[in-house]
Amino acid sequence: MHIRKAATADAEELSGLLNEIIRAGGTTALETPLSAEEFAEWFIDGEFALVCHVAEHDGLLVGFQSLSLYGDPPKGLADIATFARMNSSARGVGSALFPATRAAAEELGFEFINATIRADNVSGLTYYEKMGFQTYDRLVQVPLSDGTPVDRIKKRFAIDAKRRNSSGDNASS
Length: 173
Fold this sequence. Notes:
Elements: E1 2-5, H1 11-24, H2 36-45, E2 49-57, E3 60-68, E4 77-84, H3 93-107, E5 112-118, H4 122-130, E6 134-143, E7 149-158, H5 161-166
């Protein structure tokens, strides 16, 4: 699997990947499909987009992971989004993408990466736990567009947890 930074030219293929996930429902808080232009604005080169990496496997984009400042997060925190192509033979897409995203977050000077995951997205919760994210908050009964209430679990990853822990600072504060 090859990992690289996303380019605006990838937006058409990546929006198709994301829209398939949105249409399937049940895992992402996004509920409305995005055009290629909207995708690029949200994830690649818009005002709040920081970095977006893609995973390529056998000539196909099989996933992406982005960092953004959408929603005006607290200083030192960037939001992560991770999506992998449905029904792909490629395995471990998120795990392959995370080292590049983590390195970008560190290079950009962030202390934490935040992931907000639907409580009913078991695979998403499992993935972020596997990557080392820790639960720190829960948003209760956030309504979907049809009014269905779904909790959101907030998890964060300390960029430099080893150094903070060895210096006596509490990385979970």
